[in-house]
């Protein structure tokens, strides 16, 4: 376990270096000029332009700017936003709660709804099973932005049950504002988890040891819980973990659609204004979260099934 975690830590550092370089190079090559953001689109005298260029070191070569950013990031200094003139760490901290709440809410929907529908479909062949198969086949192909449009049109505009924009104030109002974004983010993943749960549980229910347990008179609920669902938990947990990791990137689309003040929406805004420090800082946080979630998935799979060896063959 310790050796595996050390390898994962080394992989995380390498991933952060590669991803930060790619993001930095992409922003550097993208059209636009940070001076346009700094000047607010106004025409500035040459003296003012020279001051801004010197203050933000915009005339340094590409590799010098990247090396300076890496050196500062290692010390915990993510720089200053050129648009808001605030510390990047403070800007990220003020928005991270929204993104984290959205992903946790969506993950709960994926686990509870996806596993429940998949389990019921596996244990109840017939009409309900057919409806789950057809429904999940349709929903699994729906991207988050399409789900967002449909949910806003139905539940916010037509029925007026839930708000469509903003973060809300207070805990319960915040939950109401996050409900539609969470369902839009979780829709496709929930359908995928339901299909995998159905297939895995049905396969386990046909195994010889499960049929033996049923023939011995063990309560059906106990057989399902201890033998079928437990053995099917590895593929279900693996897929659920992968979908939660993908939500870290997909949250940007949902946050923009619902006007949430989260990291994803701020990442898009900062990229459009070529705010290098903010984009790099947010990318650093998101990549770290992605690698950590995948590490937790691997560790969880090994705990569920001792035959799985971390970092090696089963």
Structural features:
314 residues; 77% helix; elongated; ABC transporter permease
Name of the CATH superfamily of the domain at 95-251 and 288-308? MetI-like
CATH-derived topology of the domain at 95-251 and 288-308: MetI-like fold
Helix content: over 70%
Shape summary = elongated
What is the level 1 CATH name of the domain at 95-251 and 288-308? Mainly Alpha
Computed Rg: 24 Å
- Major pleated sheet: none
Number of helices: 13
Strand content: under 5%
In angstroms, what separates the terminal alpha carbons? 14 Å
- Low-pLDDT regions: none
How many beta strands in the DSSP annotation?
0
Rounded mean pLDDT score? 82
Secondary-structure element sequence?
Answer: HHHHHHHHHHHHH
CATH-defined architecture of the domain at 95-251 and 288-308: Orthogonal Bundle
Class computed from helices, strands and strand pairing: mainly alpha
Pfam family, one: BPD_transp_1_N
Transmembrane segments: 102-123, 130-158, 178-197, 232-254, 282-304
Domain ABC transmembrane type-1: 96-297
Keywords: Cell membrane, Membrane, Transmembrane, Transmembrane helix, Transport
Can you walk me through this structure?
By secondary structure, this protein is mostly helical. It has a domain at 95-251 and 288-308: MetI-like (MetI-like fold, Orthogonal Bundle). It has 13 helices and no strands. It has helices at 2-29, 34-38, 46-56, 62-74, 88-123, 127-139, 144-158, 171-205, 208-215, 220-231, 233-258, 263-272, 276-304. Helix 5 crosses helix 11 (233-258). The longest helix is centred in the middle third of the chain and has 36 residues, at 88-123. The chain is elongated. 31% of the residues are buried. The mean pLDDT is 82.
């Amino acid at each position: 376990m310790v050796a595996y975690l050390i390898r994962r830590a080394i992989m995380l550092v390498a991933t952060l270096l590669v991803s930060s370089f790619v993001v930095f190079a992409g922003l550097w090559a993208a059209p636009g000029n940070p001076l346009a953001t700094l000047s607010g689109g106004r025409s500035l005298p040459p003296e003012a332009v020279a001051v801004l260029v010197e203050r933000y070191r915009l005339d340094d070569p590409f590799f010098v700017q990247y090396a300076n950013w890496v050196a500062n990031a290692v010390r915990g200094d993510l720089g200053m936003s050129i648009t808001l003139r605030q510390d990047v760490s403070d800007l990220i901290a003020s928005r991270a709660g929204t993104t984290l709440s959205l992903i946790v809410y969506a993950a709960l929907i994926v686990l509870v709804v996806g596993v429940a529908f998949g389990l019921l479909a596996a244990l109840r062949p017939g009409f309900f099973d057919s409806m789950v198969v057809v429904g999940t086949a349709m929903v699994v192909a729906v991207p988050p932005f399409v789900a967002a449009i449909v949910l806003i049109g139905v539940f916010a505009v037509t029925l007026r049950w839930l708000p469509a924009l903003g973060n809300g104030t207070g805990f319960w109002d915040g939950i109401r504002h996050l409900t539609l974004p969470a369902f839009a983010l979780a829709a496709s993943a929930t359908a995928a988890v339901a299909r995998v749960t159905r297939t895995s549980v049905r396969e386990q229910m046909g195994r010889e040891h499960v049929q033996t347990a049923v023939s011995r008179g063990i309560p059906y609920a106990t057989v399902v819980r201890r033998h079928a669902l437990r053995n099917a938990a590895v593929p279900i947990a693996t897929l659920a973990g992968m979908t939660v990791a993908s939500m870290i990137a997909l949250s940007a689309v949902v946050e923009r659609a619902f006007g949430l003040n989260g990291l994803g929406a701020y990442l898009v805004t900062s990229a459009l204004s070529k705010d290098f420090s903010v984009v790099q800082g947010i990318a650093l946080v998101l990549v770290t979260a992605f690698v950590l979630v995948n590490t937790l998935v691997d560790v969880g799979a090994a705990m569920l099934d001792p035959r799985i060896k971390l970092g090696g063959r089963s």
